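My convention is simple: the sequence line spells out the residues, with the fold written below as integer tokens. I include a record here:
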Amino acid sequence: MEGFWKDRNVFITGCTGFLGSWLTIALVELGANVIGLVRDWFPRSNLNLSGFAEKITIVRGSVTDYELIERSLVEYEIDTCFHLAAQTIVTIAERAPLPTFETNIRGTWILLEAARRCPTVERVLISSSDKAYGEQDKLPYTEDMPLAGRHPYEVSKSCADLIASSYAKTYGMPIGITRFCNIYGGGDLNWSRIVPGTIRSVLRGERPIIRSDGTLVRDYIYVKDVTSAYILLAERLDDPSIKGQAFNFGLDEPKSVLEIVREIIEISDYPDLEPIILCQELKEIKRQYLSSEKARKLLGWRPNYTFREGLKETMEWYRRWMGSLGI
């Protein structure tokens, strides 16, 4: 929407994270005044390397600090909140469920309660996930399915999602809930994830490692399509038919892990590499993907990138990043 974000005060939790950095960059470019909440500082993050960290106001602290969050919303007269701060790694959630629950669940209700009490806040975007659905018998997942997470990360997203929905329904707050499939793109430095881990290996000419048997099926969406979805949904929250709703976003083209790895290898400088398949038993849902039909119909949202187009941009980002650091 032309001019929508010009001079709007926007609060982003998790602004230095993988997704948060791309959303921050996009909103600054649209003219927003971005105030970013930062707990840990990562010198090699996308936000720092892009130079956009110097173009925003930074608040240091945790999303679980209610007084800090409330003060930030009030003092900076925040119009829009994007709540992205979370512990996002499934294996870490398995090893350390308590800090995961603290950040992902408590952090959500603290942000929502502070926003409810702040008179300037006009819209709140809450980041949920396809993992909030848990394991369902029917595929693809649709927004009317129950939220049934079982393992720690899934449960944390189910809870955060339900809490956001309760604030929307009970208090009439202008909340939008996003449920994305697996997100990939430059700036994701969690090497245990299949896309960045595989790209790092092939850029070094090494055989990529698949921990599972390669048959896990997921849908993947490029991070720039994710930022456009967030921005579009935020702009539409004035619409009563959109406010309080949850939306799935994905490419609607599920692929196996082995297919993902082979496609990355194909576009690399080492197309003859063969992956190493460890066949480790992982506590992960075998098949999981979404339907984006609701977002397409009600929001008019469409992804701008095919999977291969997104992969090519992503590989170039890592090529530049690794080259600049000599790794």
